[in-house]
From TrEMBL:
Membrane among keywords: yes
GO MF term set: transmembrane transporter activity
Compartment annotation: Endomembrane system
UniProt entry keywords in alphabetical sequence: Membrane, Transmembrane, Transmembrane helix, Transport
Name of the protein in question: MFS transporter
Taxonomic superkingdom: Bacteria
UniProt family annotation: Belongs to the major facilitator superfamily.
Ranges for domain Major facilitator superfamily (MFS) profile: 6-435
Membrane topology reported for the UniProt record: Multi-pass membrane protein
Alphabetized SUPFAM superfamilies for the sequence: MFS general substrate transporter
Keyword Transmembrane tagged: yes
Organism of origin: Draconibacterium aestuarii
GO cellular component: endomembrane system; membrane
Length: 437
């Protein structure tokens, strides 16, 4: 087993995933200006990039140990290849939608396979190497943004040239994985049964049904309108889900509810990070500096922070890192809500970047470290749920920006990391108590 080669291949696969996000942001106007699609049609055609990601992660989590890690990796490569080819030929709503279905499924398959692969490759430093692996998501967005500006804005080349550049990292990661001995997941190598993995998720049936319901809300306007028709209905739904999780986890599976608690936190961390960055253009359009520069600052700092996460995790432990991240996220969002000039905006964005920097990989690391028997399924559930939560919060933020304005929206978004400050304080105490026991 070539540990270094497999890790580099995984990073390049995630790089392809990240660049697709940057490319979509740049070619959005092409389909409205050149092909006559409305902004709503383009938004719906881009939707599979999010829910397809979640579907692939859930499917991968449930079946990776049955079909083997190697099969999920090559499924990701194939779907990436087909998706890129279809995107190059897309000129209508349907063709753009189908292309994003394949790309979304490919992106989700990368995470479903490579997160557990990284923890298997580095069993003694899981969270550190997961942060190193996830450097390539913000890093890829920076690279993709720079490539988009160079190819389309500076060289005035067709958008197909920009999309075609994806074939380069795709071919390299395919070559690096080809012929390699790819190990099975940590669950398999340590002898944990599939049934035990399901049990350690706490309430796998309830959590899966909850995420399916979230996907329906995110993709079906009629269901979304029905759910948000009153203030009490969402609270009632959340209450029913919480009760079902307690019944399934404590009464049926007779196990700690630590994983469902981490799952709840993941919904908030992902929404804080991805919701804000996806709306960065509308939120900061009037702050005297190009929003794409702010996005580059945020994602650039995130990449650097994740690369050097090892020392911080060693000193503070993963719950401590998450608690500090939540505090910085609150401060960053509140500062952005009052920022009025270029300098203040950049400083506020930097504080926010430090806050959200460690959220995603460290949340997956917490599950891998403290609920290790949840295996690949646990990591996939967290990643998939994070993207579904983002797809739900995006329209809510959009409506808030239109009605209340960017400043109020940013201030309201700070409620999510405020909740996380309390949640991660509880997690810190739970982990400390568990270690002492």
């Amino acid at each position: 087993m070539n540990q270094k080669r497999l890790f580099i291949a995984s990073c390049l696969a995630l790089l392809v995933t990240a660049i697709t996000f940057a490319i979509r942001a740049r070619i959005e106007s092409v389909f409205t200006d050149d092909y006559g699609l409305t902004a709503e049609q383009v938004g719906r055609a881009f939707g599979p990039a999010f829910w397809g990601f979640a579907v692939a992660m859930f499917a991968g989590g449930y079946f990776i140990d049955i079909v083997k890690t190697k099969s999920i990796i090559w499924a990701a490569f194939t779907m990436h290849l087909v998706g890129i080819v279809l995107l190059l030929m897309a000129k209508s709503y349907t063709s753009l939608f189908v292309a994003n279905v394949f790309i979304g499924l490919g992106n989700g398959s990368v995470e479903a396979a490579c997160n557990p692969l990284v923890t298997t490759l580095f069993p003694d430093k899981k969270t550190k190497m997961l942060n190193r692996f996830h450097v390539w998501f913000p890093g890829g967005i920076v690279i993709g943004s720079l490539l988009a500006a160079l190819v389309m804005d500076q060289l005035n080349l067709p958008w197909q040239v920009l999309v075609g550049l994806l074939f380069i990292p795709l071919a390299i990661y395919g070559f690096l994985f080809f012929g390699q001995n790819i190990p099975e997941t940590e669950r398999v190598t340590t002898g944990v049964t599939y049934k035990e993995m399901m049990r350690n998720v706490g309430a796998p049936i309830t959590i899966t049904l909850a995420v399916i319901f979230m996907i329906l809300v995110a993709t079906t306007p009629a269901i979304a309108d029905a759910v948000t028709s009153s203030y009490s209905l969402p609270v009632i739904i959340v209450g029913i889900i919480a009760i079902a999780i307690i019944i399934e986890g404590r009464m049926v599976n007779k196990i700690t509810l630590l994983f469902p608690f981490i799952f709840f936190c993941m919904l908030l961390t992902a929404s804080t990070e991805l919701g804000t960055t996806q709306w960065i253009n509308a939120l900061l359009a009037d702050n005297g500096i190009h929003p794409m520069i702010i996005l580059a600052v945020v994602t650039g700092l995130m990449a650097v922070g994740r690369f050097f996460a090892g020392g911080l995790i060693h000193r503070l432990a993963t719950p401590g890192v998450l608690l500090g991240s939540a505090v910085f996220s609150v401060a960053g969002l509140l500062l952005l809500s009052i920022a009025s000039g270029p300098v203040m905006t950049v400083v506020s964005a930097a504080v926010f970047a430090v806050g959200v920097c460690y959220f995603w990989p460290t949340m997956i690391g917490v599950a891998s470290e403290y609920v290790p028997k949840s295996g690949a399924l646990g990591m996939s559930i967290l990643g998939g749920a994070g993207f579904v939560a983002t797809s739900m919060v995006l329209p809510i933020m959009g409506k808030s920006i239109e009605t209340a304005g960017p400043q109020i929206t940013l201030r309201n978004m700070s409620i999510l990391p405020i909740i996380l400050v309390f949640a991660f304080t509880i997690l810190y105490m739970l982990v400390k108590k568990k270690k002492e026991a």
